[in-house]
Amino acid sequence: MKTVRGTCLAAVLGVYACAIGAGPLTGGSYELQDRAHAGERPGAVHWLGTDDLGRDRLVRLLYGARTSLVLAPAAALLATAIATFLGSAAALAGGRFERAALYLVDVVASTPWFFALLLMRSVLPLNVDPAVSVSITFAILGLLGWPHGVRPVAARSAAVIRSEFMRQARASGIGRMRLLRAHMVPNLMPVVAAHFWATLPVFILAEANLSLLGLGVAEPLPSLGNLMSEFRDHRAIAERPWLLAPAVLLIGMIAALQVISKKGTTSHDCT
User: With contact defined as beta carbons under 8 Å apart, do 117 and 210 qualify?
Assistant: First the structure.
């Protein structure tokens, strides 16, 4: 199993490296149009062919992977940070405040997540600069993806606070900041890491769904979601199967991240 996880991690890191180095690797821009070679089939020059505007599909796939796979971790970090703060604060407060906070979290978590995402995105401007659309999309993902991580963080924090070694540390006169740094943070890291790895593929998939519906990353900036907008014409897929490249990359990344995330969950269960 370790070999499988190592292979998946290497594959994910390889895709990230190619996505980040998309410009130097391809020597082109995702906006570059060559109308004389529009709609070409894959060949020696354009490995995945060109779209209807003459843009190289491979170049756009690499830039789209950069958009989806580099910014999704930022959204996952935001959601994880919010969940960690709220969960640890509730455990530290304890009593009625903890119960009320966790009850409120349960109410928020029971809201249909993707429906809330669609609702929030639909009320915001659609015709915006691509950079703004990227920021809006992933900020919404981060701000809506925290509820399911609060309870595990709160439970782990409460267990650490009530543990014997914490009582001994407090009895020894160790200060609050040192207690947090030396005891709370290391014991919370497995839970925090598990939540991060669990939400990362969810955010990548959510961005793809939003962009596929026209509510995510705006053209001409590519993402894995808006690159799959051509799937609406099933006849085009049958005639040009190379159009499935974004979906193949997305499915492969989601599967690899799921395998990696199981490692974090397993390590949490063993602590």
Answer: yes
- The answer to whether position 120 is within a domain reads yes
212: containing domain: 2-29+38-80+112-146+194-270
pLDDT tens-digit profile of 208-226?
A: 888 877 777 777 888 888 8
Q: Count the neighbouring beta carbons within 10 Å of the beta carbon of residue 100.
A: 12
Least Cα distance to 190 among 268, 117, 262 occurs for: 268
Residue 15 domain-assigned?
Answer: yes
Provide long-range contacts, Cβ within 8 A and 24+ apart, for 98-103: 98/154, 98/158, 101/150, 101/154, 102/150, 102/151, 102/154
Average pLDDT score, the chain: 81
Whether 89 is covered by a domain: the verdict is no
Number of domains in the chain: 1
Q: What's the CA angle centered on 182, arms 181 and 184, to 5 degrees?
A: 70
Which structure tokens are listed for 254?
Answer: 């989601």
Measuring CA to CA, which residue among 261, 145, 115 is closest to residue 194? Answer: 261
pTM of the entire structure?
A: 0.80
- Whether residue 93 is contained in a domain is answered as no
> For the residues 252-268, what does the mean pLDDT come to?
71
Does residue 80 register a pLDDT over 90? yes
- Calpha distance 177→71 (Å, rounded): 32
